[in-house]
From TrEMBL:
The keyword Oxidoreductase applies. One of its GO terms (cellular component) is cytosol. This is Aldo/keto reductase. Residues 16-295 form the NADP-dependent oxidoreductase domain. It holds the Pfam family Aldo_ket_red. The keyword Oxidoreductase applies. Keywords: Oxidoreductase. It comes from Paenibacillus radicis. One of its GO terms (molecular function) is oxidoreductase activity.
């Protein structure tokens, strides 16, 4: 495994992280504690130390699975990143909660679910600019940093070209940007990444496998079940993406190299990117993701 400093923080994160949206049940299956433990154990075995989750991945369900695991392990082995801003109601249904009082309540609920006294990276989660431009929110969050509940603040931008929130990072003491970035979606390279470089912000690339399309497992015409979030994607757009994936696999991926590993390494070869945070359904996928570090 390889490690990089996350922006101007003192966090040295593995270049491959573990994304855990799937633990919330919106990727076509439910997870038991044993299954979550196996995924996280495999990550630790391979040198992964970064876990990314959110309060709205199943109403703190993902956090609770992680917390139960962390509670039986060494907390210091892990860098925990979670997010705030959305209250989960049922699968694919959320409402925004970005007011200062509501966010503190979310923070306390996340700390309880994660069974920890502090969160390493607490991220504003894909909220609108109007919610971001709330001085009271950031003043309250920075007080939580001073109180030791949060080590560092971050911003997970909803639009991968949200320059407004990225440019304001230094002002609000946000040290990292989480953004959609992959071989099919390179928009951050134009404006967001240069701003991150100017401010020495860490960059976490989410959806680095383009919702699994860059795994190379799916062909044009693939159909996803109603419990899988990809069922909600536009069918024609999905078909076009999968046709492009076939072209990339044919023309860009070296012979004998696993496409998913190649796609993750492709993101990491951009020096602005600190780490990728792919999801994984089982320990075998964690192992496949980790192999990407060998290609960087």
């Amino acid at each position: 495994m390889k490690y990089r400093r996350l922006g101007s923080t003192d966090l040295n994160v593995s270049v491959i992280g573990i994304g855990t949206w799937q633990f919330g049940g919106e990727w076509g299956r439910e997870y038991t504690q044993d299954e979550a433990d196996a995924i996280l154990d495999k990550g630790r075995e391979l040198g992964i130390n970064l876990i990314d989750t959110a309060e709205c991945y199943g109403d703190h369900l993902s956090e609770s699975l992680i917390g139960s695991y962390i509670g039986r392990r060494n907390r210091e082995d892990w860098i925990l990143a979670t997010k705030f801003g959305h209250h989960f109601h049922e699968r694919f249904s959320r409402t925004d909660v970005f007011d200062a009082k509501g966010v503190v309540a979310q923070l306390d609920a996340s700390l309880k679910a994660l069974q920890t006294d502090y969160i390493d990276l607490y991220q504003f989660h894909s909220g609108p600019d109007a919610a971001f431009d709330n001085d009271e929110l950031w003043e309250t969050l920075n007080k939580q940093v001073e109180a030791g509940k949060i080590r560092f603040l971050g911003t997970s931008i909803g639009s991968n070209d949200n320059l407004h929130q990225t440019d304001a990072s230094t002002k609000v003491n946000s040290r990292a940007i989480q953004v959609v970035y992959n071989r099919l979606d390179r928009a951050p390279e134009e404006r967001v990444f240069p701003s991150c470089e100017r401010q020495d912000l860490g960059v976490l690339a989410r959806v680095p496998l383009a919702s699994g399309y860059l795994s190379g497992k799916y062909k044009p015409g693939a159909v996803f079940g109603s419990t899988d979030v990809r069922h909600r994607h536009d069918a024609e757009n999905t078909r076009q993406k999968l046709e492009e994936v076939e072209r990339i696999q044919r023309e860009e991926v070296p012979q004998g190299v696993d496409m998913a590993s190649w796609a993750l390494a492709w993101c990491l070869k951009n020096p602005v990117v600190t780490a990728v945070i792919p999801g994984c359904k089982d320990p075998a996928q964690v192992e496949a993701n980790a192999r990407a570090a060998e290609l960087v």
